[in-house]
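#lab-general

N.A. 3:47 PM
ok so I finally got the sequence cleaned up, no stray characters, all 214 residues accounted for. can someone with queue access submit it? mine expired

B.Y. 3:52 PM
send it over

N.A. 3:53 PM
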Amino acid sequence: MLKANLADLRKEYSKSELTEKSVSDDPFEQFAGWMDEALKAEVPEPTAMTLATASAEGRPSSRVVLLKGFDHEGFVFFTNYKSRKGRDLAANPFAAVHFFWPELERQVNISGVTNRVSDQESDEYFSSRPYASRVGAWASKQSEPIGSRMVLIKRVAALVIKYASGHVPRPTHWGGFRLVPDRIEFWQGRESRLHDRICYTLEAGKWQISRLSP
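B.Y. 4:20 PM
back already:
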């Protein structure tokens, strides 16, 4: 039987602090500041976020996706609408995303409701992707069983011939989602597990700020 002394692992957090006075009144501005600091710190994959969804039956699932844009309207990511997450969101639009930047001892948790972005927004982003990624969107029947990797390679080879001109249209089953948040929590690691947690909740159209126990 494999054994690992996971319970003995310890790490102290002491790089920074987070207070009600130090944060912005606007959670999107606060997120923009933290994202900028993550980029400057050269955090590996700073836009990587764990997306949690649930099926119509309430069965949860999660996976890492990449944030492709954000503003006061919400946080945008792209995927195959027929994938497991796409099917989940079609049946149950509530979702959460989670960022973990260990180099800065920070986490951000965002939850709310999702909706599809416009076809124009999906088209614009799809056309900006590398050629191979655009072909891959057609080749992969995401989340469906596949006999072998060779099946995927053959599909790609056929699509490369089909789209030899370089123009690859966006599949109708592929596009973006926007997570419109009603809760955004910022977590800063502190000594002795007494972490700082500042939470924004949307109430009657206004963001309220509170401190949560660690």
